[in-house]
Amino acid sequence: MSAAITVRSGPEGSITRDSVYKLFFQCTYLGSQDVQVEAEVYTVAPPLPVVEQGPFDLELVIATDSSYGSYYVDADYPVTKTLRDPVAVEVHIMNRTDPNLVLTLGDCWVTPGPSTSSQPQWSLLVNGCPYTGDNYLTSLVTVDSTSGLVYPSHYKRFVFEMFAFVDPVAQKALAEKIFIYCVAAACYPSATDPCTQTCPSRRSGRAVDKLARIASSRKNVLLHSGPVVMEADQVTTSKLEQEAPFPTGYLVLGAAAALLMVVLVLAVVVLRRLK
User: Fold this and answer.
1) Edge-to-edge, what's the strand order for the sheet holding 129-130?
2) Closest Cα partner for 90 from 138, 156, 160?
3) Could you read off the pLDDT of 142-161 as tens digits, one per residue?
4) What is the CATH number of the domain that holds 81?
5) From the centroid of its chain, how far is CA 69?
6) What pTM did the predictor assign?
7) Would residue 20 count as lying in a domain?
8) Among 144, 147, 212, 235, which is least packed by CB within 10 angstroms?
9) CA of 136: how far to CAs of 62, 85, 86, 132, in Å?
């Protein structure tokens, strides 16, 4: 019994291109004898896939609306929005078909200039979760098997409402473009990093520190959008009034006073007719 594979040898080593292990066996016996031959073949499991790090591309795009049915292209920028218009943002991994890859988001923020250090700045996401200092919280959009995507784990989506930066001294809206920045990473789940992101209503300081450490250990990539501008008639140079809730008591008193005036007018009209 013998087995062999074809091997080629060279000055720096040997190679083979045979993927099948060939087994030869021969039995010799007398023609007048009955001999029973038993053979048992064990199947071999296929080899494990080899996973190696390599280059990958991430992209940040803005959808034309919150349905994410279409996206702005380079020729569409600068994109024009009005105040409080929803701005639908998507970050995704490009040209990869590995279903185990998971896209994670870190911080996302907005600046008035094409630089990460441009001032002022406003946060949209912090460690992948909506910035809680905003009264209009950024909305995270669920991306799963119902989203119509082949690899939903390769995508992250969120929506924020359009705003304008304000001059801190003059309290006037600044007529400037805004640029969206995000830190993202392509992550492989492991025992130390499950590549999951949760945003509970309350986080302990220890939990926040742990999430920050895990996020910083990933190979993050900085992405940015094209410019987004407000419509011209939305930009005002008048002093902005601070938002404050109108006291409910004043509303009640105003309604009562108006009702009293109506009653008095009716009473005067009736008295004149009686005379």
Assistant:
1) 129-130, 122-126, 102-111, 179-187, 221-224
2) 156
3) 999 898 899 999 999 999 99
4) 2.60.40.4100
5) 16
6) 0.62
7) no
8) 144
9) 19, 12, 11, 9
Structure token pair of residue 176: 């400037």
Count structural domains, the chain: 1
d(CA 184, CA 63): 18
Task: For residue 67, name the pLDDT band (cuts at 50, 70, 90).
Answer: very high
Q: Give, in degrees to the nearest 5, the angle at Cα 20 between 17 and 26.
A: 125
Residues 89-126: tens digit of each pLDDT: 999 999 888 888 899 999 999 888 888 888 888 899 99
Strand, coil or helix: 8: strand
For residue 83, tell me if it sits in a domain: yes
Beta strand extents in 142-262 (DSSP E only): 155-161, 179-187, 221-224, 228-230
- Sheet strands (E) in 52-162: 57-63, 79-81, 86-94, 102-111, 122-126, 129-130, 139-141, 155-161
- The answer to whether residue 25 is domain-embedded is no
Residue 169 tokens, joined: 């001294």
3-state secondary structure of 169: coil
Sheet holding 139-141, edge to edge: 57-63, 86-94, 155-161, 139-141
Residue 103 belongs to what domain range? 58-233
> CA-CA distance, 131 to 59, in Å (whole number)?
22
